[in-house]
Structure formats: C-alpha cells, structure tokens
Amino acid sequence: MDLRSDKLQRILSKYKFHDVAVEELQKLHRIYPGIKPSTDTYTFSDGTQKDLLKLIGNIPVKYEGRSYNFPIQLWLMDSFPITPPICLVRPTADMVVREGKHVDPRGRIHLPGLHNWDYPKSSVVLLLNEMITKFEEDPPLSSKPTGDDKDPHELLAFVSNIQINDGGVRHQDQSIKVSVIGGGDLGMASVMSILSKCKVDKLVFIDIAESSTKGGSTDLEIFHLPKVEVSRDMSASAGSRVVVVTANAWSSEQSYVSVVQTNVDLYRGIIPNLAHLSPNAVMLIASQPVDIMTHVAWRQSGLPPTRVIGAGCNLDSERLSHILNINLNTHKQAWVIGELSDSKVAVMSNTGLSSSVQAEISPGSSSKPLLDRAFDIMKNRGQRSWSVGLSIADITNSILTDKMKTHSISTLAQGWGGIGTEVFLSLPCILGTNGSTRLAGVSLGQEEDSKLRDTVTSLSNLISQLRI
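Above: the chain sequence. Below: its structure as tokens.
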C-alpha cells in the first residue's frame, strides 16, 4: 500500500499509534489490494469535523449463487488500530441500503467484530472477512426500484406510518422512551426518580445477570408500575431517547485496576449493543468509577462524545448551588468540576440563577472564600443511591425536555482549559435533546488548576492500564 503521498503522510503523522497503524494498513494491502487509502474530512453527528484517513473499495460477496461487489468505506479514527474503524456501505446511484441485522438505515455497519474490537487480536483483515460472511447471509444493498415496481404493500406501510403537519412530514412514533440498564439500589432509585420527575411513555428496566448490582426487577414485576417494562433482553431498550447505565461488576480482585477492568469487561458485552439499538440516544453513565466508565462507554459505543455523558459531579453541584442560594444568599449557580474525589474543584457562574443570559464560568479566584464556606457546609453529605437517582432523573429531564440547563457532568475534557489529554471528567455542560455542549474554559486559580491537572494525570494513567 502506497502511503508516500504528502496528504497521507500529513494525516498519518497525527495518528497516536502511527507505526502500528502503518503496519496494519500494509497487512490489509497484502490480503485486499483493492482497498485504497485516501484522506477526507469526517463530520461527527455534533457537527465537529476532523481530517482522517479512510479506506475505500469493494468486497466480493456471493448471494444465491451470484457474485456481487459491494462498495464500502472505512473511516480510521486517529487512535486506530486501538479503536475500531467506522464502517459504512456506499450505495451507488442505482443502489439503496437494505436495513438489516448488520446495517442501519444510514448505511453504518454493525458487526460483532466491531463491538468486541480488541487490538491486536482484532484487525481490519479479520473485520472484512467477517463482513463478507455476514453480507452473504444478509446483503446490505439492493438495486433501486423504479416507481413502477415498488411493492404496494411496502408503500402502504410507509404511508400509514407518517403524518402531515404544518412542519412537513414526520413519522408517527414520537413516544418518549427511557431505559435503565442495571439493577440494585441505584437502578431502582433511578427508575423511581425518573418516573417522578420526567414525562415518559415507557421506562424499560433491564437487570444484567453478570452485574454485581443486580436485583429489584422481580419486585417491579410483582408490584407492576404503569409505564414500566421489566426485561432481561437488551433489545427491549431499542429506540430509547436516554439510556442510563448503572450496572457494576465488582470482582474480588485485590488491585484497583483489576476491579475496574471487571467493569470494563462487563461494558464490552453491553455498550456496543445498546448504541446499536438506540443510535440517537444520549447515553448517561452512572457506573463507578464514573469518569473512567464514561470514557470506556464512549470508546466502545462509537457515539459522539456529546452523546455519552456521566452523572459525574451533578449531585454535588446542585447541592453546592442550593447552599450558596439558601445559606449564603448568593443566588448564583455553582458547579463542582474535575473528578468525584477529594481533588474536585468548585467554580461559580457570573450570572444570577434567574438570569435569561447563558451562564458562563466566572474567571479567577475572587469567589473562592465563598465556595470554601459552601464546601464546609456540604461536608459529610454522602452519595446515597436515592440521591444519585434524583440527580440522574434531573439530567434525564433536561435532555428529554431540551431544557438547555447547565449541569456538571462527566464529558470529554480534551481541549477545555488547555487540557491536551483524552480524558473524561466533570465540566459544566448545557444539556438538551442532542446531548451536551461544554461551557467555555476559563483561567482557574493556582490551587484549583493544580488539582485539575493532577486529576487529568490520575485518570489518564488509569485509563492507559485498562483493556477497553
């Protein structure tokens, strides 16, 4: 594979694992010489863009005795081959995408090999082999029908599922569905809190057998609650607006890294499937440690970082704002940022609680004495399951109602306030239907900045030791 062009070299030089990426591409060329590399700009669903490598070509597929060449496209993220490519079929002008088990309506390919990607065991060559095998069972493309030979039953089914209103055509299914994945006290608390706080048409509660926090689903089945569906089948979550994950799988391992790895292994079996079943959902992580597990969920899901968030420091932030308002009479919103630990840092908004102006973080440390007093008042307030459940419901409500409220949630912090590392931690973010948008970074005081940098280093060191 010729990778000598200036464009390819320029983009490849930005890849975090440059040498192994080149080695992987050369292996691919030996087996599939027709798959060619190029460069292009990938647009994520949140509108952000990045110059990346992409692979384009055809794969040979036999179906019902005939041979076909299906055009495909693989986008290689800048962390390739540690992270899997984003794979798509590329229908030509006379082709249409056939939605099926392994391809969604937008042409994105979903395969076990992608969901369970684990380099170096996984490779693009093995992925293409799997793709061919699956497409021989269920082809991803078909010839575009003309108007004359359109199946009338298919057409009627489509027409019956749409409505015409002043805004144009929309699909009839506008129901609000939320899923909670993981039992135990936190799962149950989340279910009850979301039912109380949010307007939902259906709330699916899925108990994970492998989770150490399982339990509660039987009681919900016995004492049936309106709008709650109890299931042990992940497919019941399909089409959710918000997917809350509370599952944990604590092991008896002695080292902290080994304990967290057990949770990562649990996630590998559920997160890709959840993302495939609800590709437009916001995924809200509450498993522990929340910043690490949100990072893991983002990598495993393939979703944009704006739609994979963690409960993070939202509970502490709401408590802090309440104390500042009631006890100290400041009437300003405050947020706890960083990691949910002793290294967390408090910042304050420069606008009042009732202001219609978009909140911004107040720069400098002029508010530090006030925030320190509020932190003292907050001491010894634990994070009980019911209080975390209320916080989860508050975040969920902001998403479902497109409230555009600012929450301190675990999010991708890279690029905020000079953070250059790929790490997730709590930052003030505006939440709505499409997920999260971070508030602009500001200069922190010397003590606060030092704490935040220590948190970044700590989280980065832990994530580097995990097999995601």
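The chain is about 35% helix and 25% strand.
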